[in-house]
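Q: Fold this one first, please.
A: Sequence and structure below.
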Amino acid sequence: MNFLSTRGHTAKASFSDVLLAGLAPDGGLYLPESWPHIPAAEIAAFRGARYQEVAFAVLSRFTAGSFSDAELREAIEAAYSDFDAPDIAPLVQTADNQYLLELFHGPTLAFKDIALQILGQLFSRALAKRGGRATIVAATSGDTGSAAIAALGGLPNISVFVMHPKGRVSNVQRLQMTTSTHANVHNIALEGSFDDAQGIVKSLFADTDFADQISLTAVNSINFARIAAQCVYYFTATAALGKPATFVVPTGNFGDIFAGEAAFRMGLDVARLVIATNANDIMARALNEGVYESGISHATLSPSMDIQVASNFERALFEACDRDADWTAAAMNDFTRERRLGIPQEVLASLRSRYSAVACDDAETRAAIAAVYKGTGRIIDPHTAVGVAAALKMGPLEELTALSPVVVLSTAHPAKFPDAVAQAIGAPPPEPARLAGLKNLPERLEILANDPTLIKQFISSRLAA
């Protein structure tokens, strides 16, 4: 399996190359040279199979030539050994033809664990084969950072630097990162937004001398290994239902929903992919108005989605323009310069053939939490609530579910956002055992200005220590 860059100016790479590089040298994002195909009969046979077996069936299509079957199976088993749900991503029915796909049963109680636990296992094995070190710099809007720390903290030959926007993540999210005791983990509270942090990470990759010097790589969803791992639960959910579903995906950086497109391109029958956004509605505006334009990042009850530049959208654009790398590179350069991109009609039509997009505000988020609690007794987090609210705004659910089952991706445990839940139902959710005592632990972090030079100096000083 070979991989290419969305911008067309990078040599073909193996899965291990992609895993350890993260971002392509030309600034683009890696995708498989051609999508592997999983036959319909094999997908149907996923019904009732262990999640780990489905993960192997999907991931082995990408890892061939980089990891043996035995290595991949061992990595998958290790990755999912510490999940609280035996089936890893349980599908829970909430009403007729309505479901929540619970993705928060991993070590940090967020969907990022599903991909990052396997990423950490594969990282460790790839480095052991090649030798050397890796420096991981991750921008996080809340959940990627803690999941990366849980997956990579304490591993040999890896240094992890996590940047979160100061004051823009929940207290629980912050504490999950900053109370880590691993010596190879370094937390930065950036005086800026997530988009600022993400921009700094991209600037570090653009400084090729610095990137090469520290063996820089990424675990954000710009790393295709994350997308590959997230494809799996689209397959397991569809197999469990026995029919194509409409997946409603709370998304900020577009990785989780692009994994749905990746599954579709691998042969999964998907009825619809619905982009659910909060007030940071760049993706809703892009799909509905045809203009991809970043604005001011707004703080909301769903902070992990407080993003105005959706990095993985480049992958969707590349596929929608029939893999025209020259157009994609020019479009992304225009967007970087102007912070605005008019999407050509033929590209927009291709996107709309697969995606719909709905934006919801905080009032609708609170109302969705309250409605689900009243109707089912379940407590959902504010990001999942954005998905529920988006489904409601698409029209009467009776009409929607008559066409296909509606599956909302439930991306985080409600206890990570107790204040938002309390606003909606009058009390915070019960605290799970994984979070017990977290607030009593000492924190380790550095508060730094939004300045790439300062970030470089900090990284260099910690690596030299």
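Q: Good. Now the second chain.
A: Here it is, same layout.
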Amino acid sequence: MEKSLNREPGCDDGEFLLVDKPLDWTSFDVVAKIRNTYNRSGFKKKVGHCGTLDPKATGLLLLASGRKTKEIASLEVLDKVYDGSIKLGVMTESHDVETDEYGHRTVDHLTEMQIRMVASEFIGERLQQPPMHSAAWHNGKRLYEHARKGVVIKERKAKEIFIHRFEVTRIDLPMVYFILHVSKGAYIRVIAHEFGAALGVGGYLASLRRVSIGPYELRSARSVADTMEDILRQASTTPPG
């Protein structure tokens, strides 16, 4: 495991930081906060992240600083594991809680066996189209920029993803709780939407938490505040170079 922080103030040697992203923060919010803390401490490091989390998702955000930012591309390809919940019998335009519900349907007829069987059918290789409410690019703009103007880009380029595991951990209709182990680039919101469609009642992602990125695990992560405190404490205890 990488050292949690550097020991040479002002140098650009790198490190990885495991941060537990709070709800309603963007991944860039976390990067900016940590970068600014480095600057205040005198380290002045570049900071980037290895895989975006949506604002309504929480959990593991893997940051790279200094020279370690050169390894971001190799870390972005790592598999990811999430836990979360899907609300069945209703949909949203964003496929998560960012937009209003519509299309309510009853779910009383669904059985546990049916729900688990449909989940098992998702395992394997799939073609997935990025959602309109996403940071994917189209003609020089993020898709969410088009979506905010009410424009739907139908020719969004689909890409191959792989679902290694889709385990239903609990059913309390209309809520279904799950663990998903997926390849790079998989949108869990899209899986939730397609899962609801496959059950014939619709569904959206009600909550999401990333618990691992490759070998890096959420249980080793620290809060944003604690990470900032670590950086400032290190700067105060490291003698001038």
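Q: Anything worth noting on the second one?
A: The CA atoms of residues 50 and 74 lie 9 Å apart.
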